[in-house]
Amino acid sequence: MKKIAILCSGGDVSGMNAALKRFVEYTLDKGMKPYFVENGYEGLIDGHIHEAGYNDVAGIISIGGTKIRTSRSERFKEERYRKKALENLRSQGISGLVILGGDGSFKGMQKLTDESDDIGCIGIPSTIDNDIAGTEYCLGVDTALNGIRVAIDAIRDTASSFGRAFVIEVMGRECGYLALVSALTSGAEMCLIPEIPYDLQAYKEDFIREKSEGRSYFIAVVSEAMKHTEKIAGWFEKEIGIESRMTVLGHIQRGGIPTVHDRLMAFNFVTAAVDALIGGDRSAVVCYDNGIFVCKGIEEVAFKAYHIDEGLLRLGREFGFK
Known about the structure:
There is one protein chain. This protein is α/β, with parallel strands linked by helices. It has 12 helices and 11 strands. The chain has a 7-stranded mixed beta sheet with strand order 3-2-1-4-5-10-11, with helices on both faces. Helix 5 (103-114) links the parallel strand 4 and strand 5.
């Protein structure tokens, strides 16, 4: 294997640029030629592929997002466009492809390997939602959690100063991981996620009692998956009798300077991915499992439902998240 490429697909995460840096430096050290695919699967279809070198990754390790850009591609779902993508790789003599993305990206990756016998693909879980089965950690999660932490800590200052309830919506698509971990580590009084049933009447009884005992403000963290952040803000005013505000953190959770943890994870994920391709793996995803990096088949990752670790859920219940 002499030529190997990398692309980013789906939502961007902090740590992707660190992955690109490691990819270029590690492949060159192994005597291979690294290539960048610009703009994800869209760029693969359109032939936006170029050789990469040290100068392309100089100074990018501390920058969020991805230098080579990313996209979501509807065209890639059609066989004729995947055929074009494969032709573009072959025209450059590329026989290996590393893909940073999530479930949808990996399903597309499987199509590529099913429809070719000369190009191997390895996926790296990259989503702040941390909702990919088979891996305990996805690239970008730590940076997102730290961004949320900074926001909640700042909001708490205002909540305590004004004596208000703040309802903070965090990302997560259909998964409550970000909300749960953020609520636990910020000392929130309420956390609503799809994985833990809740009872607003029970919360009401607790909060009214706490108010009578001197509590002057509340922090509630709500997963976007619940789809009723505004309703909860209204509930605080109507049922608890406290002025409330709603804050949707939105896409600030995706960007920002990657943490040390995400930079190290990026290096380890990429190293394992390149080694897997060198070793002959053709269709797998690098997963972080019990402290080690292992390759798993796509069917173990992209086609299975993700479940939050039971230990985390137990912590949530113990801290009173109904």
